[in-house]
């Protein structure tokens, strides 16, 4: 069928408009909401809390999976490129670091730059920079503020709401910090034996000493010499509890607990949330506090 010139021009204009809309791919909706990729759970948590209904957040790590050794699928690499913002922590997931460098260097927040990483705590066999900043609530609040700033810049019409949510989250995290400071102020012991060196920032904030069985990588196998050293220190400090974590095998911690006459208990490093869990950052941190108070004999 031969179309008239006006009809043909109208059809071409409509097609161009459709192609432009399809090709933009930058936002999750026509209302300016932001499409965000979060590298793992704590980054997802703060983004959702400050972004609210102005963000659609994708977590690169499936619920219940260990995030350290994540390998990105081609579809996830594509997501990094299409996202309006990527929230990650350089030095925690090498594959994500590489993916950001390739696909998202211009639209990513490195939260390790927001809160500079410290050296791994004494006793960690794989010395390096400790990435577990989110276990200090005040450090996480600073990360949330930075994420809110970037989202507010993208979505200026709703910037006030985004900043209000960030203020609310900071208040909740500061209240949690006070709970920890008060709850751990008067204790019989101040040493915590952990399955891996994830709790350095928490220990520093609340004047505890972390004694890790393994280093920064939770799947690392401790040497017999290091395990003997940890056992000796556990006895020295009369440790009642050896802490293991959610996403890796508890066997080494359980074996050590039997050897020193302690019990094995789970302390969650909040690197991920189990599938189907109703818990969130605040509830898990409060559960951790209860377990720490029991283990340390706190008043």
UniProtKB/TrEMBL annotation:
First and last residue of the signal peptide: 1-28
Is the keyword Transport assigned to this protein? yes
Stored PROSITE patterns: PROKAR_LIPOPROTEIN
Q: Which InterPro entries match?
A: AdhesinB, Bact_metal-bind_prot9, Lipoprotein_PsaA-like, ZnuA-like
- Which Pfam families would you find in this protein's record? ZnuA
Entry GO MF terms: metal ion binding
**Classification via Gene3D superfamilies:** Nitrogenase molybdenum iron protein domain (3.40.50.1980)
Keyword line: Signal, Transport
Biological processes per GO annotation:
cell adhesion; metal ion transport
In the record, the note on similarity to other proteins reads:
Belongs to the bacterial solute-binding protein 9 family.
Q: What is this protein called?
A: Zinc ABC transporter substrate-binding protein
